[in-house]
Amino acid sequence: MTQVLLLGGTFDAYILSTLLHEAGVQAIYSYAGATQTRRTPALPVRVGGFGGVQGLVDYLSAHHITHVIDATHPFAAQMSANAIAACARLNLPLLSMERPAWQARPGDQWQHVPDMAAAAQALSRSLKRVFLAIGRKQLAAFAGLADEHQFVLRVIDQEGGALPLPASSYELIVARGPFQLADELALLGKYRIDCIVSKNAGGADTYAKIEAARQLGIAVIMVDRPVLEPRTQCQSPQQAMEWLRRQRC
């Protein structure tokens, strides 16, 4: 019998969980639990890490998992790497569902960087007001710049402990996407943003800030996605369902 482990935490994963439920597929939805405000998937849910590759191997074996779909965030590189290694060890089919990365268009003022430390180094002193559209996990990379810049932060919820920046150095926005272009234009204007730091998450949910930056001529420091081992990939929940149908034939 098919038993799917869906590694989630993204909106596309939530959509896929609904499709799996509607199709009557036995599946478990797993996410890290980094944020408190989440849509409830229509599947049995587990929360938290697995304890590395061996922990994931043990879980897959104990729960008789036959297929794994990795629908984590494109920057959840460690979880994705663990899934690749664990599935290879058990010879289980693995599918990575990943939205296409954003591509620069005419008018964009992007500076590509490989990681968050490089993004912090790329901030020139002339860029005083910076929108850190990166969540809360990697804010520490910018802690040493608090005297030179004023930051605007946007997070999904207020849980998760103190932020690693001096309170006087940032203004906090609590909101969950998707965000509309008009909203992002208003935000960038209200806070007089000079530069956006963004992960290249892909997809439409958070792209509006990139389009708004293009329209307003605002610089974007774009953190490129981590590079992972080659694996079977798709770009949408519908494609993931088709892959699973082929696997079950």
TrEMBL record:
PROSITE patterns: COBK_CBIJ
Pfam families to which the protein is assigned, alphabetical: CbiJ (PF02571)
GO MF term (any one): precorrin-6A reductase activity
InterPro entries: Precorrin-6x_reduct
Alphabetically ordered keywords of this record: Cobalamin biosynthesis, Oxidoreductase
GO BP annotations listed: cobalamin biosynthetic process
Pathway field: Cofactor biosynthesis; adenosylcobalamin biosynthesis
Keyword Oxidoreductase: yes
Protein name, per record: Cobalt-precorrin-6X reductase
